[in-house]
Amino acid sequence: MAENSVEKGPWKETLDSFVQYVALNPKEFLFYVFLIMTPLMAISGYLSLKLAKHIEKNEKEKKKKATRQSNMAKARRRAKAD
């Protein structure tokens, strides 16, 4: 009875037809899901790899910079001591 009082909008009808399609054609639905998701997952993996390499590069640069600064500080201390 409460369902009759709710107005069926275009979204509700579309959702109902979609659910009906999925229920009647599960293999075809899964095929389309995998067809759409496969390239997206490949792009995601590529971008993750690229990000990991970028992070490693930045960490190496920070480590080099810290080593360089510590060596410069040691050289200054030696120069003051002389």
UniProtKB/TrEMBL annotation:
Gene it is expressed from: SMIM15
Domain of life of the source: Eukaryota
Pfam families: UPF0542
Transmembrane portions of the chain: 29-49
Membrane topology according to the record: Single-pass membrane protein
Region of interest (Disordered), residue spans: 58-82
Major place of residence: membrane
Keywords in alphabetical order: Coiled coil, Membrane, Transmembrane, Transmembrane helix
One GO CC annotation: membrane
Phylogenetic classification of the source organism: Eukaryota, Metazoa, Cnidaria, Anthozoa, Hexacorallia
Compartments in which it is found: Membrane
Protein family per UniProt: Belongs to the SMIM15 family.
Leader sequence residues: none
Annotated organism of origin: Stylophora pistillata
Protein name: Small integral membrane protein 15
